[in-house]
Amino acid sequence: MLKIAIIGYGKMGHQVESVATERGHKIVLTIDNNNLNDLTTENLKMADVAIEFTSPETAYKNVKKCFEAGIPVVCGTTGWNNQLEELIKVAQKGENTFFYASNFSIGVNIFFKITRYASTLIERFGSYSPEITEIHHTQKIDAPSGTAISIANILADELSNYNGWTLKPETSDEKIPIEAIREGTVPGTHIVNFNSEIDSITLKHEAKSRRGFAFGAVMAAEFIHGRKGFFNMDDLLKLD
Ligand SMILES: NC(=O)C1=CN([C@@H]2O[C@H](COP(=O)(O)OP(=O)(O)OC[C@H]3O[C@@H](n4cnc5c(N)ncnc54)[C@H](O)[C@@H]3O)[C@@H](O)[C@H]2O)C=CC1
Ligand SMILES: O=C(O)C1=N[C@H](C(=O)O)C[C@H](O)C1
Fold first, then answer.
1. Where is the active site (predicted)?
2. Measured distance CA(5)–CA(17) in Å, rounded
3. Residue with CA closest to ligand 1 atom 37
4. Span 157-170, average pLDDT
5. What are the residues whose beta carbons fall under 8 Å from the beta carbon of 125, sequence distance 6 or more?
6. What's the complex ipTM?
7. Strand pairing category for 73-75 and 97-100
8. Ligand 2 pocket check for 146: Cβ under 6 Å
9. Residue 11 catalytic?
10. 13 and 84 share one domain
């Protein structure tokens, strides 16, 4: 049984609470906009691990607070990639424990591997243009989604004609276009399309709820218990 601090008690925080208690863990602290002053070193030290799902503006400070308190932290907040790199480097030194994923769903992480394999085949022929579409609920702050950026990085790794991504309607020959659609309450849909003059190949992952994200985050919390350093879904799922 782990004692868990939930930082960000919104849509994801509530799902994490539900999955964690079902798995026999205890929630010892919940933090949201209404009780930010409770995010103290003293309170964090009551927990074995913190799980952070907040906003692009707040994640950096929250993860740093966990480092300062010496508490392992699992973070799924998207939209702060520049600052994230800095904290990954800090954790890689081995004094802190940090697990980050742009998407904790097992299905999406399988989808990442399928996308990489498809890209290696596409690269041999060179006649296909890639495009990513992500569809999310209208409350989502960041665009493109963290998952779409992860997919774009995989495509750019494998396709020699591309070296980054661009958010539509902007276009650029060397950048993989990402279309971000905001629609109703969609939990998260990601589509990769490889288009040529004679055909197209489409890969799609569609989350049916937020449960898969929460389940992955709780598994990550269990995984980092007793470990030091930086970890991601490849360490947890060992899909290679
Ligand atoms: N990595 C993954 O698998 C997933 C990542 N996400 C990401 O997680 C983040 C949160 O998503 P949702 O739960 O849907 O958002 P939400 O808006 O429903 O919840 C955010 C919560 O954070 C709280 N909050 C704001 N500032 C805070 C601070 N400084 N300290 C503590 N709490 C604070 C808010 O009061 C709110 O309760 C987003 O960046 C989203 O993209 C969402 C789903 C899955
Ligand atoms: O904000 C969301 O809801 C989600 N955010 C993550 C992202 O930006 O990729 C993961 C998931 O798609 C849901």
1. 136 (proton donor/acceptor), 140 (proton donor)
2. 10
3. 10
4. 97
5. none
6. 0.99
7. parallel
8. yes
9. no
10. yes
CATH number at residue 218: 3.40.50.720
Predicted confidence (pLDDT) per residue in 4-30, tens digit: 999 999 999 999 999 999 999 999 999
Q: Is the Cβ atom of 136 under 6 angstroms away from ligand 2? A: yes
Judgement on whether residues 90 and 147 belong to the same structural domain of the protein: no
Residue range(s) defining the domain that contains residue 160: 106-206
Contact yes or no for 213/106 (Cβ under 8 A): no
Both 100 and 114 in a single domain? no
Cα distance between residue 220 and residue 112, in whole Å: 18
- Distance CA(104)–CA(122), nearest Å, equals 27
205 included as an active-site residue: no
pTM of the entire predicted model: 0.97
pLDDT tens-digit map of 91-108: 999 999 999 999 999 999
Partners of 195 in the β-ladder:
129, 200
Number of structural domains the chain divides into? 2
Q: Out of 25, 136, 190, 205, which one is annotated catalytic? A: 136
Is there a single domain that holds both residue 144 and residue 55? no
Ligand 1 is surrounded, with C-beta below 6 A, by 7-13, 31-33, 36, 53-55, 58, 62, 76-79, 101-104, 213
What CATH number is given to the structural domain containing 196?
3.30.360.10
